[in-house]
Design brief:
Blueprint (H helix, E strand, L loop, with lengths): L12 H11 L4 H12 L6 H41 L13
Helix pairs in contact: 2-3
Length: 99
């Protein structure tokens, strides 16, 4: 696929999907290198490549923040459970459970 005004190719959706699968779990610096290697010398429009890199960086940021949110949610659940357990009513001291 080519842009009409520059004659340079853009990353089409299929190429972005293939690259996205390759770089999905990579740190951004490694992902950026893979993307740069893929487009190197192939006359790709730099704007479309930069846009794709921005999408990858955004996805990485979302993954990092969701991991932090999950950890925070787990900590909140632990604190709520502990508080609930501490505040359960205690049986009277003189009564023993009936068997």
């Amino acid at each position: 696929m080519e842009q009409q005004n520059t004659g340079q190719k853009i990353l089409d959706p299929i190429e972005r999907a293939k690259l996205g699968v390759k770089v999905f779990n990579m740190p951004f610096t490694d992902a950026e290198k893979v993307i740069d290697d893929y487009v190197s010398g192939k006359n790709y429009d730099s704007t479309s490549v930069a846009y794709f890199k921005d999408q990858v960086a955004t996805q990485r940021h979302i993954q990092e923040k969701s991991a932090e949110l999950l950890a925070t949610g787990g900590e909140i659940m632990r604190l709520v459970t502990n508080a609930f357990m501490k505040n359960l009513p205690k049986p009277p001291a003189g009564n023993s459970p009936v068997s």
